[in-house]
Amino acid sequence: MPKYGAIYIAHNPRDGEHVFKVGKTERFVQERMAELTAATSNIGTYTAKAVFLVWDVDAAEAACHKRLNRYRVQQNREFFELQLNRLVQIMKEETSQFSATSIIPELPSEEPPPSRPKSMLVKIEAANQQRDDAMRSYDEAVDRAYSDLERGFGLISSRVNTMREELASFDRLSWKIATELEEIGSRNWLGILNWQSLMCSVQFHSKFRGEPPALKFSGLRGGIYGEPDLSRAIDYPLGKFSFAKDKGYKSAKDRDYELIEWRELDDGRYGRIEINGRVETRNPDSDEGGAEPVFSVRAIRIEYDDYKTGWEEHASDKGYSSPEEALDVFEELIIANASQSVIDVRTELCLNLGDGV
User: Where are the domains of the chain?
Assistant: First the structure.
């Protein structure tokens, strides 16, 4: 049966500036702090940096520990090393579903004083005012979310550029880092944004024992299709098939297009990791109306599809409210996948790039 209690963040300066204990108690938190101080062999006093009251203390603690596992100092202890503001943010998110609310007894009703019923016009004006207030609060929330997204983008750009400099000698990585945050598009009537802005990405390439294989590609060009990328073509064209439309186009140029085929050397690509940013909005008329920035880490497995003569991408992603947490996952995925010894990846693909996302 669930038990009420408190999840606490405790700190003793002797443990380290950024090392905190995350635990639970069903008693007064100050009693627990005194107990921790008396039990430790270190000199120093434990103080509670934050407390979260919950209705299921065991489940809430388990959820917090699971989320914080990557920051654990020792596998069998409840101590975690990270910045306090980030720890508090994570704890708020994980304990929100267990948050204890006030229990107010039913009070005897009082007879309201008699009043004149409001006219329809007054009711309409009040409803309009309520709607205007909700939209004003909503717009302010969206503006704050965009500002937070821009600050997060600056942090991400700086840290990823540092990563690129540190790994400059690792020739199996290619980087793409945005110089500015792209416009994220317009909101529909529900205030929902439909696409994301790429902030940075790193692509992984394999090594080949000998000459890379020549892969076959195909694409449409002409008319509305433009020109495919032939910058890496080594054998072009292998063949082409022309099409012509008799209706719906104004000129001969728009009527004609063709399917072309070519070959290019395999560049060894087998995976890519990205950080994308967006502002996630909710209907301002709902109880949860508002907006918040989301930093999404996407892991993409890249395969060459001989049947479709082109690259196929299979992606998985996860969103984070904190840019620091997204960067930590991004870094972990780079280390996990770049450390693999992948050779002749078209026949020896051995990575699951989605692990950890």
Answer: 5-98, 140-207+268-338, 218-262
